[in-house]
Amino acid sequence: MTGQKIMVVEDDLEIREVIRLYLEKNGYRVVMADNGNDAVALTAMEQPDLVILDVLLPGKSGFDTCRELRGLSAAPILFLSCKKDESDKITGLNLGGDDYITKPFSPNELVARVKANLRRPHLEAGLSERHPTKMSVGTIQIDRLSRVVKIDGQEVPLSRKEFDLLSFLASRPEQTFSHEQLFREIWGQECFNDTRTIIVHVSNLRKKIEPDPSRPKYIINVHGVGYKFSKIS
Question: Taking every annotated instance into account, which residue ranges of this chain make up the domain Response regulatory (predicted)?
């Protein structure tokens, strides 16, 4: 039993209750909100380990709520939406979301996504003997235990998945990983041709750590394969 706390933000009572039942069955503690304002207030009080956030909420949208939540918490955010457009998914990921699942969905798949999004921080601790816990490349300093990234001594706010992606690549310099490998390692799932999620997270990460994101010197494209982290600063 995990005991980790999940916040479910969903205005449809039936869907909210189904999610709650499946999460509690798998050992999670659940707090619930049916609108964005309550979700922000609950996050400040409860500090959930993960947030399941509906996009189409009454009043403040899930996207606007995500913006506010990112100022309060680095917990993974999993969007729920009846919209299948790729542009909506990209919007959610660009705002700091970690995952995106469309309705209708299988409750078991949702629980699997929750487990996958909570898994990486625990795996990081187990890597400390094989990979350094603190790394410096150029002006970037990465502390994998405190999950803090600094550039020229100034802390850079990263989402959970952005940190996991940077930490994974930086601890394996000059090794090339495909989109599928990165999705499996960072999200704990098979890619299912969902390369857009990786592309968006790499783009967002570059905007935060690269001196010139249009000409990256740290996270490098390997044409036709994927990405690698260059230790040459």
Answer: 5-118
Q: Are residues 175 and 137 in the same domain?
A: yes
Please give the distance of CA 214 from its chain centroid, rounded to a whole number. Answer: 23
Q: Provide the domain count of the chain.
A: 2
Q: How far is it, in rounded angstroms, from Cα 79 to Cα 151?
A: 30
Question: What single DSSP character describes residue 233?
Answer: -
**Interval 174-231: pLDDT, tens:** 999 998 888 888 877 665 556 778 888 999 999 999 999 999 999 999 988 899 999 8
Last residue of one domain, picked from the residues 122, 145, 165 = 122
Cα dihedral 220, 189, 67, 166, rounded to 10, equals -30
Pairing between strand 50-54 and 77-81? parallel
Q: Please tell me the pTM assigned to this model.
A: 0.71
Question: Amino acid identity of 73?
Answer: S
Task: Answer for the pair 57, 167: CB distance below 8 angstroms, yes or no.
Answer: no
The answer to whether 7 and 50 are in contact (CB under 8 A) is yes
Helix axes 86-94, 62-69, angle to 10 degrees: 20
- Among 3, 4, 20, smallest CA distance to 12 is for 20
- Give me Rg for the CA atoms of the chain: 18
Same domain, 111 and 190: no
Which is nearest to 186 in space by CA: 174, 206, 170? 170
Report the CATH number that the domain containing residue 17 is assigned in CATH: 3.40.50.2300
DSSP assignment of 170-215:
HTSTT--EEHHHHIIIIISS--TT-HHHHHHHHHHHHHHH-SSTTS
Question: Distance between CA 49 and CA 52 in Å, rounded?
Answer: 10
59 sits in the region (left: phi over 0; alpha: psi -120 to 50; else beta) called left
